[in-house]
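Practice problem: predict the structure.
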Amino acid sequence: MAMYETFFGMEHTPFVRDVPADKLYESHSFRETLGRLAYVADRQKFAVVTADPGCGKSTLIRRFYEELPKSEYIVLYLSDSKLTPRWFYKGLLDQLGLESRFYRGDSKRQLQQQVEIIRGVQHKKVVCILDEAHLLEKETLEEFRFLLNYRFDSMSPMAVVLVGQTELWTTKLKLQRYAAIRQRIDMYCVLPHLDRAECEKYIRSHLDYSGCQQELFTEKAVDEIYRSSTGIPRLINRICEKALMYAFQQNKRLVDDHMIRYVTEHEMLEARE
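Answer:
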């Protein structure tokens, strides 16, 4: 733990990445998106989720995975920007405990057969999550369409969730050459920045997790945090972490807007680049 925790009477470090998922603040949009993804999993649909960097995509995926009953679902997760179609199938088959065949077509049929077994024999639904999807080439994205198209009945063989930064939608899927993929999308979700009220609740929830009993940030300090972070949780974490360290060094029990401004101007250069 950093030195300021003891100074502020904390049991846990508040503004870090490894806060337990069930202790994290979840905005209305976050919970709504989780609900929509649960529907996608249940109905075996195709969804796209985008957000700006630092807005909670990884947290969303973690929560989504944790909330899916493992007695009903098998979840496959891939995150590889260099993923080719062949390695895409290999990655999925590896997670199912199968040795993938060399040729892409063989691997595809192998995966399709295994999904049929999971559905028909194990009576489970398959959910495939592909993270960092904004970095993928068209050829790999096309595989999802083929995978979802391989049967002509009303039931899709699996749920597919593409997760990526905002440009996945704005500069990729919106292009004409991706029209065939775009037309298959059943649900499009966006994780927005937090608003001012949510920013305050976010800070409060992290302080509650830390075990700190007192208010540490003034109202004006929260205004300044919100202004500087534009409501991006990752930046809120960074600003609050540096502000608490600075307050500890200055022997101050309360963080005000002047201290936030000092921290953002002197220690947050990377956030403004």
